[in-house]
Design goal:
Layout (H helix, E strand, L loop, with lengths): L1 H8 L13 E6 L14 E8 L6 H17 L6 H8 L13 H4 L8
Antiparallel strand pairs: 1-2
């Protein structure tokens, strides 16, 4: 945690292009190498946080929370992506409600 604190202490502020709509997102668990495990896509952990430089308090709080939860539950030497696969990633709540198969597809009873 000391390294994270020192890193955040030396970060310069970033310019805001659009102060009302500009923000940050946090992606976790991505991996390109296939040394220990096959490559994995990142997963969206936090879709939007306000961009409040120079110290980004909302981003820091979210990252600390993610790392603390992972550290408390992860196995020894388990990476975050491997931990996410082990515990499961929640399905998106923005998925449309499921419909019956007859209402979503049209089938032809007899060939033409």
């Amino acid at each position: 945690m000391h390294v994270l604190r020192e890193l955040l202490h030396h970060l310069p502020g970033a310019a805001i292009n659009n102060a009302l709509n500009d923000g940050c997102s946090i992606w976790v668990g991505g991996k390109v190498s296939n040394a220990r495990h096959v490559p994995m896509f990142s997963k969206l952990a936090v879709p939007f946080l306000p961009n409040n430089p120079p110290r980004w308090p909302e981003v820091v709080a979210a990252v600390k929370n993610i790392v603390e939860v992972w550290a408390a539950d992860a196995r020894k030497f388990e990476r975050m992506g491997e931990w996410i696969e082990r515990i499961g990633w929640p399905a998106s709540s923005r998925r449309p409600a499921s419909r019956s198969p007859s209402s979503t597809s049209t089938t032809i009873a007899t060939p033409r």
